[in-house]
Amino acid sequence: MKKVKITVKRMARYDDLMAQYENPIEHACSMRLGQTFICNGWQRPEGMCDSAWETLSPFVMTLAHGGENLYDGWMKDPKSAMISCNDGFRPVSFLVEVLEESAE
Fold first, then answer.
1. Are 33 and 10 in contact (CB under 8 A)?
2. pLDDT of 53-79, one tens digit each?
3. What is the pTM of this model?
4. Considering its fold, how many domains does the chain have in total?
């Protein structure tokens, strides 16, 4: 199984939608732009948001087990995916990519 790196690439915030639909939340997201995580299989990396991990984990597992070319050529690098978490108010976009060294 290969190690997979997850990098926070973009963070958005939709204050208009939050004001209209969301109940106030004191601390909804602790991700930081440029933050990275290394995944060893199915285990959620420490510090990774539970909700984001639920969205990312199927892609992480596919890439870790040698899958590539997701969605028939969607990504320029076939051993990667650009995935956003499922928070519609403050989505975070993550680059998920295979590290070439094998996991031990």
1. yes
2. 999 999 999 999 999 999 998 999 999
3. 0.90
4. 1
